[in-house]
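Bumping my old thread because nobody answered last time. Still need a sequence for this structure:
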């Protein structure tokens, strides 16, 4: 599809309102988008930028390129840990399927279509999600608001303190700033890994 055609096919505002109502009734599901090889991270970043620009955080909840850490041994015997994509050519998207979200994902540069018969999106099953390590349990509820001080109690940032800068209910994370090499850096921490101070 040419770029000129894409510019003229943006869904209208009326369609957005209708699809939002339908989306909330159906619930968010995980879908798989097929990408050109090597474009997975670019597609993920582009979709995330579009979500931010169009304020669609409540419709497209998470974009993921699953990776696995693998230890490689070189010819001289040195070991090096490398992150490898589990599914090269695929990006997982947790979203409410509607005309707007379908359009955004499908027309992201590098995406060739959704996985499903005749490129019709088919959500992952519970079993497939479990095999991929995707959380299917109930959402964690927290009593934290933006600006509240918190302490990280588990994980890589255990022992760090900070004020909540943002809360992402869909991803079940909060964003705080931690000090890395003398610079304040924003990091996402899971709800289950924090405690209100």
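Sorry it took so long. Here it is:
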């Amino acid at each position: 599809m040419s770029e000129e055609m894409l510019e003229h096919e943006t869904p209208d505002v009326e369609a957005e309102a209708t699809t939002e109502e339908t989306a909330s009734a159906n619930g968010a599901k995980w879908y798989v988008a097929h990408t050109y090889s090597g474009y997975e991270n670019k597609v993920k970043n582009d979709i995330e930028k579009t979500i931010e620009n169009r304020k669609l955080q409540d419709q497209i909840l998470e974009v993921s390129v699953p990776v696995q850490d693998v230890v490689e041994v070189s010819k001289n015997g040195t070991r090096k840990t490398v992150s490898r994509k589990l599914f090269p050519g695929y990006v997982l998207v947790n979203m409410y399927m509607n005309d707007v979200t379908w359009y955004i994902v499908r027309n992201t540069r590098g995406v060739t279509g959704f996985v499903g018969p005749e490129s019709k999106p088919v959500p992952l099953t519970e079993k497939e999600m479990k095999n991929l390590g995707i959380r299917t349990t109930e959402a964690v509820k927290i009593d934290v608001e933006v600006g509240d001080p918190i302490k990280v109690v588990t994980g890589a940032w255990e022992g760090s303190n900070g004020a909540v800068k943002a809360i992402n209910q869909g991803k079940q994370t909060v964003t705080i700033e931690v000090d890395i090499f003398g610079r304040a850096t924003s990091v996402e921490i899971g709800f289950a890994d924090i405690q209100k101070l």
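The first helix runs from residue 3 to 7. Let me know if any region looks off to you.
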